[in-house]
Amino acid sequence: MAGGDLLLPTHGGLPVLARAFPCRLRLRVPAGRHRGAPPLAASRVDVANVVGRVRSSGAADTKRRRGRDTEEGLAFSKVVTSRGRGGAHEEDVVEGQALEFAAEKGGDEAGGVDGSYLSETRFDQCAISPLSLNAVKDAGYEKMTQVQEATLPIILQGKDVLAKAKTGTGKTVAFLLPAIEALSTLPNSRRNQLRPSINLLVMCPTRELANQVAVEAKKLLKYHRSLGVQVVIGGTRLTQEQRSMQANPCQILVATPGRLKDHLENTPGFSTRLKGVKVLVLDEADRLLDMGFRRDIEKIIASVPRERQTLLFSATVPEEVRQISHIAMKKDYKFINTVKDGDEETHSQVSQMFTIAPLDLHFSILYDVLKKHVAEDADYKVIIFCTTAMVTKLVAEILSQLKLNIREIHSRKSQSARTKVSDEFRKSRGLILVSSDVSARGVDYPDVTLVIQVGVPADRQQYIHRLGRTGRKGKEGQGLLLLAPWEKYFLSNIEDLSISEAVVPSVDSNTQTKVKDAVRKVEMRSKESAYQAWLGYYNSNKTIGREKSRLVKLAEEFSQSMGLGVPPAIPKQILRKMGLNNVPGLRST
Ligand SMILES: Nc1ncnc2c1ncn2[C@@H]1O[C@H](COP(=O)(O)OP(=O)(O)OP(=O)(O)O)[C@@H](O)[C@H]1O
């Protein structure tokens, strides 16, 4: 950074970004863009003392959906133009009834800076069983969160519900608790069979999230001795899961779509067990209903009884998800939106910044920001999101060479390694997790201090969910989006969020040399894989992948940033799969 000064509003703000950027920043305040804040009196303030908020307005109208194979660098994305945001009221016309619950500011609760995620209603004021109530107490929950308060009575009535609530505000308990209540009233005979029916099926897009949901379910089941929970997520041999389901069949199943489909097709008696489903939950519903998972989900829905209760939960519910929610829910479902009309989908206590810098500076900037953050906050806990599994691996290797305390998680790691890293990161501080989108949604790592997104996220939703790994339960957090100049177009998708520009840090030559050395030490194979994955990811990006000759030039820039004079060659069949077999400038093997 040019050692610049910070132009800040003087009306307040959080001293949080100082940790990520203890150097001085220049915030760009777009003219006439702030809303709902007192007039901004810009003054020069050291960023180490205070960071202000800058609000922008305008609605993003372009939403993207992507396939789940981005991890392999073979993603596809489809641009869908919605009718605009804040559509809760329009949506009444489509189907279902929209209910809005204003999340007004509350006091400072549960250790957070913003208690607004909690309601004033205590669990013991609700019509839930003493068994559940005791478990809720043991879990340390006293008041309900806003989304729990808003959805519980309606779910207990047996209604289908589509619920939207910001990240980290307790949606898991919101669907699990009433679903468990519904199960606990089923006649005992159903539960005592040798191979009992599955009565509650929870679908999650990732293995980590499925495991986490099962852990939360176990907490709530503590006193419901006759109810059990099981997870089927893949990553282990199918036979192993089959054996454990046979040895200890449970009424609650948490699953990822691919593996559930495998069991439907290959596990004797499994489809019969699914005929007992009373409640179906799609956690991260918009993700499960997008093109990457849609087919599997449709098949799963066709395998459970039509007469059931369905609950769809997410922090983001784009218009197109409302349009297709009839795939899963009854016509008279309730849409419960706890994000107040006009409020942002992200948390106000999370400061968001973006930086636009040439690709060849990204590793140095990343190191610089991390070094400063680590030095400022002994309790640091950082997640860095990268575009693909292989780019994640590369970034983790570079940062490890630089002696930072790095862990790595993505789809190419074994499930046991993923679980180990995930458990460690949940419990620890002083760690940096470099991750692909396997950690983007739902995973609840407490006290993450900073989320960095390197490269353009798949879509607006993914940006919001990744950012949502920090600032959970009303706590402070920071987010940084690091883009190359040609990725700047993405900002129009998030221009309604409170995100401000930070100028490019001026990384000193010592740091640059150190980073170059670290990059040089990384194995060639990692670089080759990262290059291939990078090309696949951006090739499938509707904006960047449109012009192939430009894409090839940008990929060359990426390969140079890894210190390679000549971009690596790519196997012919992979180039063909990407539709890049005859593009000049690409080398093939
Ligand atoms: N009533 C409550 N009081 C205090 N803490 C709660 C309460 N309900 C849930 N929590 C805790 O809040 C945290 C966030 O919950 P959860 O992971 O369900 O959030 P979420 O809304 O599903 O987030 P995401 O959108 O990222 O999936 C968890 O640690 C959970 O244990």
From TrEMBL:
Q: Which domain of life does the protein's organism represent?
A: Eukaryota
What's a Pfam family this protein contains? DEAD
Gene Ontology terms, MF aspect: ATP binding; hydrolase activity; RNA binding; RNA helicase activity
Where the record annotates domain Helicase ATP-binding, the positions are: 152-335
UniProt keywords (A-Z) are: ATP-binding, Helicase, Hydrolase, Nucleotide-binding, RNA-binding
- Give a yes or no for keyword Glycoprotein in this entry: no
Q: Is Nucleotide-binding one of the keywords UniProt gives this record?
A: yes
**Segments forming domain Helicase C-terminal:** 365-523
The chain positions of domain DEAD-box RNA helicase Q read 121-149
Matching CDD domains: DEADc_MSS116, SF2_C_DEAD
Question: What EC number(s) does its UniProt record assign?
Answer: 3.6.4.13
Function, as annotated, reads: RNA helicase.
What domain comment accompanies this record? The Q motif is unique to and characteristic of the DEAD box family of RNA helicases and controls ATP binding and hydrolysis.
Give the UniProt family note: Belongs to the DEAD box helicase family.
Protein name per its UniProtKB record = ATP-dependent RNA helicase
| The organism of origin for this protein | Zizania palustris (Northern wild rice)
